[in-house]
Structures
1.
Amino acid sequence: MARRPRARAAPSRNPRRTLLLLLLGVLLLIAALLLHRLEIGRRPPPPETGRLTVVALDVGQGDSFLILTPERKAVLIDAGPPEAADRVREALARYGVTQLDLVIATHPHADHIGGMTAVLDAVPVRMFLDSGQPHPTRTYTRMLEKIREKGIRFAVAEAGQEFEIGTGVTLSILAPFPTRLQGTRSDENANSIVVRLEYDAFSMLFTGDSERETEERLLEQDGTTAPLQARVLKVAHHGSRHSTTRAFLERVRPEVAIISCGAENEYGHPAPETLNRLRRWVRELHRTDLEGEIVLRTDGHRYEIHTERAVAAEDLWRGRRPRFRAEEPSPWAPRNGRAGSPLPMESSRQAPRASPRENVLR
Ligand SMILES: [Zn+2]
Ligand SMILES: [Zn+2]
C-alpha cells in the first residue's frame, strides 16, 4: 500500500464518504478485537500466535531465569547473586514485567537468592515457592522477612505439585522429595527445586544446583509425576562435574543445554567432563558466561534461541578448571568454617552462622 504514491496525490473527492468508510472500518476493527478477546478467554491460544519466552539472565556466577507466557504471565526462577540484583530488576523492567505470578528459589545459596530481596521490593509477587531448607544465613533470613513483610503467599515445594501458569503452560515440581536427601556433598544443592516447564510440545527442565543423588532419585521416580524427558536442559549446578550424569542425560535426552555461570568463576564451572557428557546428547550448547543473556522463544513446537553475543562453537565446548584444588581451603571460605571440611566453598552446612563473606560464597 505504501508503494502507491498516487493514493496520496489524489485525495478523495467526497470527504463525507471517506469519513463514513473510516468510521465503518474502526467499528469493524473494534468488533474483531472484542471477538478475538472472547475467543482467547475460551480456548488456549493457538500455538501459531502464542509464544512463550525463557530468558537466561546474565547474572555472573549464579542462576536467574525468567519465563514469560503467551498471556504475559511471568515466573522467575532464582535471582542471581547479590551483585546482580540491579541486573535482574533492569531485566524485569526491560521485558515489561510489572508483576511476578510465581517466584521460585531453587535453594538458599546466595548465588541463587542474592538478588531476591531487591526483586521482591521491585515488583509485586503473587506466590513464592521455596525449597524449605533451614539455612541460617543473613541473605536467606532477610529474604524470608521480606516475604512476610510483603504478605506474599509462601509455599514449600515438593515433588508432585503442579502450577498452571495461565492457559497451556504447566510447571511440574519434580524435586525436592518428601524425604529430603541427606549426607550429600551439599544437601542444600541436593534438595534444590527441580521444575519441568511444559508448553504444548515444548519442554524445559530447570535443575537448580542438583547433585548426583538428586539425579539418581529423579531417575527412580521418573514417571510417577511429570516425565524427566525435556527438549531443553538448564544444566545443574553451573555445569559442575558432580552433576549431569550419563544416566540422567540418557533419560532427559535434551536437544539443547543452557549453562548459567560466571566468566571469572573460581569453581571451574562448567567442567570439561560435564561438557563431554553433554556433547553426546545435545546439538546446541549455550552459556551465559560467554554469550551473555540467552533468549529462547517457542510457539510450543519449534523454538529459536538468540544470544547477546555470538561465540564460536569450539569456544562454547571448552570447559574451565578450578583455580585452586578442591582439597585446599578456598580463600573465600568462611573463617569460622569447620577445619577440614571437604569443600568449604560448595557447602554452607558447616557454617551455621552467617559470616560477612557468606553472600559471595554460593
Ligand atoms: Zn549455584
Ligand atoms: Zn548451590
Note: Residues 52-316 form a domain with the Metallo-beta-lactamase; Chain A fold (CATH 3.60.15.10).
2.
Amino acid sequence: MRTVGEWADLLLEGDPEEAVEALRDALTRHGDRATFFEETVAPIQREIGERWASNAIGVADEHRASNLVAEALAHAAATRRSIGGQSRVRAVVACVEGELHALAARMAADAAIDYGWRVTFLGANVPTRELARYVAQSKANVVLLSAATLPNLRQARHAIERLREVAPDAVVAVGGRGIVAYPEVARTLGADVIESDLNAALEAIEERLGPSLAPERGS
Ligand code: B12
C-alpha cells in the first residue's frame, strides 16, 4: 500500500504507464470507489496542490499528474459503465460554467455509477443554458453540480435557478471544495442537497427520490 506522498511522487515523477496502471488497478480492486476517492485520490490531489502552492513543483508537473489521474479514472470507469442500464435514476454530472476542476466531478460521476444510476458526465465548464437544455431534454431526475472556487459556487446559483425552471422535479445537489470552503454561501444556493462527501450525498439523494426510485446498488 502506497502512502499519499508516494502516490504523488509516482504521478509527478514516475513512469507514466506504471502510474496509470497502478492507480487503475487500485481503483478496480476497490469495490467502493467513493471511499477510495475520499480517502486516497482526493488527498493525493491535495498533496499535489500543496507542492504546487509552495513552488516545490510547477504547473506543468501538476498538469501531468492530474492528467494521469484522469486517465486512470477513465480506464476504471469503462469497466463499470454498464451497471446502471436499468436504473430509473438518470443523473447528469457537470462542473458549473467557468469551473475547470473536472476531476472532482468525474469522481462524483463514478461514485454515482457505482450506486447503479444511469450517469451522463458533461465535464468541465458547462454553460448554464446548455446544462439546462441538456437536463430537460434528457429528462434527468438528478443533477450533480461541482464547484471548487467562490466565483464558481456563485455560478451554481444561476444554474440551479435555470434548472428549477426547466426541470422542477429534478433533485439538484451541489458538492466540491467550494461548499467546504464557503458553507455560508453554499447554504443560500437553493440546492436540495449540499454535501461534499460522496456517499453521504448520494444516499441523501436516494432518500429524496424515495424507495420506489432507488435502484439496487452496483457491486
Ligand atoms: C488539479 C488542480 C487544478 C487543475 C484541474 C484539473 C482537473 N482536470 O480537474 C487546473 C490546472 C485546471 C486548475 C485550475 C485552477 N485552480 Co486549481 N487546483 C487543483 C488541485 C491541485 C487539485 C484539484 C483536485 O483534483 N482535487 C481533488 C478533488 C477530488 O477534491 P475535491 O474538489 O474536494 O472533490 C471531492 C469532493 O469535494 C467531492 N465532490 C466534488 N464535486 C462534487 C460534486 C457533488 C455533487 C458531490 C456530491 C461531491 C463532489 O468529491 C471529490 C472526491 O472526494 C487543487 C488543490 C486542492 N486542495 O484540491 C487546486 C485548487 C482547487 N485550485 C485553485 C485555484 C485557485 C485554481 C485557479 C484559479 C488557478 C489560476 N490562477 O488559474 C484555476 C481555476 C480554474 C477554474 N476556473 O476553475 C485553488 C482554489 C482555491 C479557492 N477555493 O478558491 C486550489 C485549492 C489550490 C490552492 N491551494 O490555491 N486547478
Note: The chain has ten helices and five strands.
